[in-house]
Amino acid sequence: MEEYPQNKTLIPESWLKYILFYLISIAFIGFNAILFLEKDSLLGVAIPVAFIIVLTAVFAYDKLIWLAVLLTPVSVPLSRLVYGLPFDLHMPTEPLLFGLLLLFLISQAAGNRIDKKITRHPIAIAVYFYLFWMAFTSVTSTLPLVSLKYWLTRIWFTVVFLFLLAFLFQKQKNIERFILFFTIAFVPIIIYTLARHMKIGFYNDTAAHWVMTPFFNDHTSYGAVLAMFIPFLAGFAFGGWIKKKYRFWLFALLGIFVVAEIMSFSRAAWLSLILAGGIWVLIKLKVKFKHLIITIATFLLIVFSFQQQILERLERNSQDSSSNLTEHFTSMTNITTDASNLERINRWQCAIAMFKEKPVLGWGPGTYSFNYAPFQLTRQRTIISTNSGDGGNAHSEYLGALAESGIIGSLSFIIIIIVVLYTGIKAYSATDDKRIKTLLLSAVLGLITYYSHGILNNFLDTDKASVPFWGFTAIIVALDIYIKQTNKEKGKAIT
Q: Which of 81, 165, 348, 355 qualifies as a cystine partner to 474, CB 3.0-4.6 A?
């Protein structure tokens, strides 16, 4: 009797993978159907996405960072997807960044260290102090859990988009990749926003405040992020190192961003670009950094000394926000009837009053919006003020930090700005490489748009502003290290 071959099975081996595929597919569809019918939820769709992200994290860690960059422009608040949650996150970027933070900590525990030139760079040291003081005031916070979450978001933004990107930017092609990934992923949001605005009518400046939702909360954050990338796109478009066949697309991308910026009706963003243009002129004229700081300090001293006369002058302006671009820009100085400007002053006054009550430790990082309501004075309230004080933040990075983390917290943020600008401008002067000079100058100007915008608004609690903010800082760190190393090697070669 012939024996049955041992290598044969009832089901051919070639069939097994198909059967397994269909069984998993049927199970996945069934799970989502039950979840949708019972809970009215489509969260089950996230399972394969999560699986892909986990595989990427294991086998290609750097690809996960680029994925986070690509997803940032299209992220949406979790509150838009699931109602009634006691917390909010930007999906899918913040969970992704949290995962990257955990992987980074595991990698560090395993002995994989980032280059000491990055971790011991002056900018990194300034950031350590900033994060340390934020952690300390989170412990003393009036709402410790709120402050802890706020501090944690700062940690994963700085770890991923400052330290890890600075490491990746050691390969300088990754700098262009970072900028292009973000801007190209931003284009669909711009088209979506302009299409909605066109449908309502571009003459309707009120619609410009919300047509970018749910991707941006309002036109100010949308305009701020657009402004940050315009110096880079201009540098790429006019840069001599870019191949001619790509320049058309770069000019097109620059044109899209400029049009979007104009139609954002964000007066603060427009002003930030004007100020960045002024700094560009001063840098091109080779004005020394100390003279630049003295000029800014003198300007601020004059404003402080003549604040009463300036306020009296501003009170004569009665031009409200308008669909006319000239009138809309002019309304920026209207502090008599423009509700947006008046509410911003109300928030500033609340922040100052909060600081006076807790000048050293503040009320706790991220707690301004929970605490400012009692500090609103009747004469300062506007038609858009709320009794519960649930209208948002301090509308100033500097005053917000002052109220939340005290005088040291605000100074720690200002120190980062000074160190970054000093490093960027000094590095710019220390190299003759046109490409590197353009990248450095673009990073400095992009950050200046946010530093100036930060006087009037604060968005560093959002992924869309934090990614370019820390990413541009990482560019300056990486290029500064490269220039120092290159000049050192040239010095050795000469001797």
A: 165
